[in-house]
Amino acid sequence: MTLSDFSPGMVRAARESLSNVEATFNFVVCDVQAIPFGDRKFDAVIANHMLYHVPDRRTAFSEIRRVLKPGGFLYAAANGRGDKSNISELGRRVNLDLFPDKVTDSNWFSLESGRRELEEWFSDVRLHKYEDTLRITESGPLVAYFKSFNRLSASELRELEKIADREIALKGAIHIRKQPGLLSAGKHALTAR
Ligand SMILES: C[S@@+](CC[C@H](N)C(=O)[O-])C[C@H]1O[C@@H](n2cnc3c(N)ncnc32)[C@H](O)[C@@H]1O
Fold this sequence. Notes:
Oligomer: single chain
Bound molecules: S-adenosylmethionine
Distance between the termini: 23 Å
CATH topology: Rossmann fold
Strand order of the largest sheet: 3-4-8-5
Number of helices: 7
Number of domains: 1
Radius of gyration: 20 Å
CATH class: Alpha Beta
Helix content: 25-40%
Structural class: alpha/beta
Mean pLDDT: 91
Low-confidence stretches: none
Shape: globular
């Protein structure tokens, strides 16, 4: 099993968290647009919540296809376009547009658009939806999430905390709508590419 990411920090964190697991992992820092392995090496490629970061997805798909064995599968987790839409609404109440690219960019990789894109490269593309919601019962983790964007001042964060505390006191929790899912896509056993 080869575990990879573009970020050396992510690969280091994976290595550390798996240090007690008895299995042999190969850790690699690499860009999915230039996978440093030969053709037809892998039974499966898992690309979880990352394809929307990749500038040239056509190159990424061509690379993933190349390294898959015939009959192998790509599994790509992503979100539907409406995912966490009410967390973005919360951000807008303190004038923060959390995901401006997602809203305006028709090129954003979502479960809906991703399916169509994958169909150009793979066969038997299927969408597996995962019904889920996030129930937030304390404002602290929510404020920490907003803080991680580094785009809000201390007073805006305090304002956000007040809004969240009020809503939690009123309704018991803030329910965030989630639309995660997995796209599976096969490399047909008989295709040459
Ligand atoms: C939201 S995180 C998901 C991390 C992990 N796959 C998971 O599911 O927990 C997105 C990851 O995509 C990685 N990434 C972004 N562009 C990439 C690229 N071109 N090739 C490989 N990884 C990339 C980032 O470094 C980041 O770790």
